[in-house]
């Protein structure tokens, strides 16, 4: 697996403060993608032990809610095995931290992937420029869904996703005075 960046103290890619791993490789190539530099699976840097330790150092912090996998696409064939391995290690070492995953794939096509047992929240679907809305929670276009993966997998029919939150926040989130005051969730319904 290769990656482009590790973002620290991120509040834009999931609930709470997060560390974000931006992987290389995406076959969706959405029009007006925010990260076209990440499409090439051979771009960026090799994900090595130093990069993993950088992520673990962030996850050690009590105020970090978890990790978000983005890119590129973490479910690109070049990434899937390494992403699964890293998720398993994170789940074991940091069981109280949440794992978010952004992918251009749809839930119905990926819900049976073995790595889904590690994912708490999935944002699925390609970005559609015609459905873009900057006020949406955790997603860029109306067609995408923010899915509670574990609740969905427990259902009788896991093909029908349980949504983590609606499209828009009813109330503005409170402004934290310190990092420790940052809400564990910013998804206000």
What is the element layout, followed by pairings?
Layout: E1 2-10, E2 17-23, E3 45-46, H1 49-59, E4 64-71, H2 80-93, E5 98-102, H3 107-110, E6 121-124, E7 145-148, H4 149-153
Explain this structure to me?
This protein has 189 residues and is α/β, with parallel strands linked by helices. It has one domain (2-181). The chain contains four helices and seven strands, in the order βββαβαβαββα. The chain has helices at 49-59, 80-93, 107-110, 149-153; strands at residues 2-10, 17-23, 45-46, 64-71, 98-102, 121-124, 145-148. A seven-stranded mixed sheet has the order 3-1-2-4-5-6-7. Strand 1 (2-10) and strand 2 (17-23) form a beta hairpin. The longest helix has 14 residues, at 80-93. The radius of gyration is 16 Å and the shape is globular. Residues 179-189 have low confidence and may be disordered.
């Amino acid at each position: 697996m290769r990656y482009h960046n590790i973002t620290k103290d991120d509040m834009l890619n999931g609930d709470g403060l997060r560390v974000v791993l931006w992987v290389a490789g995406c076959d969706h190539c959405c029009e007006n993608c925010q990260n076209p530099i990440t499409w090439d699976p051979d771009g960026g840097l090799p994900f090595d032990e130093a990069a993993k330790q950088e992520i673990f150092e962030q996850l050690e912090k009590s105020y970090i809610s978890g990790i978000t996998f983005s890119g590129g696409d973490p479910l690109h064939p070049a990434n899937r095995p390494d992403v699964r391995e890293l998720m398993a290690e994170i789940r074991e070492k940091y069981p109280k931290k949440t794992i978010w995953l952004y992918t251009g794939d749809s839930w119905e096509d990926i819900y049976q992937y073995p790595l889904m047992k590690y994912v708490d929240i999935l944002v699925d679907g390609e970005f559609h420029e015609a459905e873009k809305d900057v006020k949406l929670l955790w997603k860029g276009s109306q067609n995408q869904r923010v899915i509670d993966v574990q609740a969905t997998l427990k259902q009788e029919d896991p093909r029908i996703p349980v949504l983590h939150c609606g499209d828009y926040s009813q109330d503005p989130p409170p402004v934290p005075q310190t990092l420790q005051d940052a809400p564990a969730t910013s998804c206000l319904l």
